[in-house]
Amino acid sequence: MDPQDTQGSARVAGEPPVDVVCLGESMVTFLPSRPGRLADVPAFERAIGGAESNVACALAAAGHRTRWVGRVGRDGFGDHLVETIAAHGVDVGAVQRDPRRPTGVYFRTAADRATDAHEVVYYRAGSAASAMSPATVPYDTVADARVLHLTGITAALSDDCLALMRALTAPRPGRPLVSFDVNCRPGLWRDGAATAGPVLLELARRADLVFVGADEAEQAWGLGDPAAIRAALPEPAVLVVKHGGDGATVHERTGPGTDTVVHVPAPRVDVVAAVGAGDAFAAGFLSATLRGLDTTARLRHGHLLAAAALTVPGDLAAPPRRAHADRLAALAPTAWGTLQLGPGWTGDDQEGRTP
Fold first, then answer.
1. Which of 16, 25, 139, 197 has the fewest CB within 10 Å, making it most exposed?
2. What is d(CA 288, CA 296) in angstroms, rounded to the nearest whole number?
3. Degrees (nearest 5) of the Cα angle 23, 227, 199?
C-alpha cells in the first residue's frame, strides 16, 4: 500500500457484520440553478453523486447496516463527501484519503439524461478513486458483509480499478454475495462500448446478482431481450433486466438450467428529475432480498425506491417508511397497476391512484 495513504478501520471488534458493502467512486456533483446549457447556467448547488454510495445511503435510510468503501482526496470536497455519506448513516471507516490525488467532481444540466439537451462534464481523470487497486483496498474491508455491491463504473476508472474488480469478483471461500450493476457508461471507456462490452460481460458472469438495463445490454452486447441477455449470462443466480418505465424482469435460477421468470410493471411516476433511479432500484431490490421477500416483492420494492428518487431533484431521496412500502408492495395486481406516485408520495399514504 502507498505509504501516503490513510485509512480507517473497517469494523470495530464485537460489532455485527454489515448487511451491504458498496465499493466505488463518489464525487461532488454540481446541480444547475436553472434549466439550460452549461454555458448559460449562472450558478450550481453542491450535492454528492456516485452509484455505489447512492445505494449505500438508500439502504441505510431503509434500515440496513451499510459501509461505503472508496477513496477521496485529502481536500475539502473529500471532507464533504465523507461527512455527507456518514450523515446518511453509512459506515465510512474504510474510506481512504489520498494526499496527492483530488476528489472527482462533475457538473450536469437539468435536462433528462436520455435527451440530446443533457450535458454532463466530469473532472475525474487522475482522481483519488482511480488509484483503488488490490494493493490499496484490503479484502477485509468487504469480506464481513452479507452482500458486496459493485458497478461497472469502477472497472472503467483505471487498469488498477479493473484489477480490483476482478479480484473482488473472483471465486473464493466465504465470498459475500456479489451484486453487480452493469452501469455501462461508454464515455468512460477507451473506444467506448467496444471496450466496455467484453469487460462488463466478464464481470457480470462472475457475480451472483446482476442488474442491467435493456438499453445498456443492447449498447454493450447487442442484446435487448431478457431471454437473450440471460443466455449470455447463465452464471448469476439472479438476473434483473430493467425496462425503464415498462418495469423489470427477473430470471432466477431454480434448478440446473431452469429459471423462474417474473415481470413486474413499474408504477406511473410524475418525474421531477430522471437521475438516481437505477441506484435506488438496486437498493430497494437488495433491501427486499436481505429481508427474504419473494421475487415480486423484491421487484416492487425496487420500483418504489426508484420512484422516490425520480420525484426529487437530486440523486438521493428519503425512502418511504418500511410499513408504507410493504403495504404498497402487497397490493393486488390491479391496484398496483393503478398506482401513480408524485412528489411527496413517500410520506405516509400520499400516493395517488389513476382511474
1. 16
2. 10
3. 35
C-alpha 164/C-alpha 65 separation (Å) is: 23
Residues 6+ apart with CB under 8 A from 15: none
CA angle (213, 90, 298) in 5-degree steps: 40
Q: What is the CA radius of gyration of the chain?
A: 19
Per-position pLDDT tens, the chain of length 355: 443 455 544 444 556 679 999 999 999 999 898 889 999 999 999 999 999 999 999 999 999 999 999 999 999 999 999 999 999 999 999 999 999 999 999 998 876 666 667 788 889 999 999 999 999 999 999 999 999 999 999 999 999 999 999 999 999 999 999 999 999 998 888 888 899 999 999 999 999 999 999 999 999 999 989 999 999 999 999 999 999 999 999 999 998 889 999 999 999 999 887 778 999 999 999 999 999 999 999 999 999 999 999 998 777 888 999 999 999 999 999 999 999 999 999 875 454 444 3
Backbone angles phi, psi at 97, to 5 degrees: -115, 125
Q: Give the residue numbers annotated as catalytic, written as ranges.
A: 279
110 Rama sector, left if φ>0, alpha if ψ -120 to 50, beta otherwise: alpha
Q: How far apart are CA 80 and CA 303, in angstroms?
A: 30
Q: Which amino acid, one-letter code, is at 213?
A: G
What count of other Cβ atoms lies within 10 Å of the Cβ of residue 347?
Answer: 11
63 dihedral zone (left: phi>0; alpha: psi -120 to 50; beta): left
Residue 135's nearest CA partner among 9, 316, 7 is 7
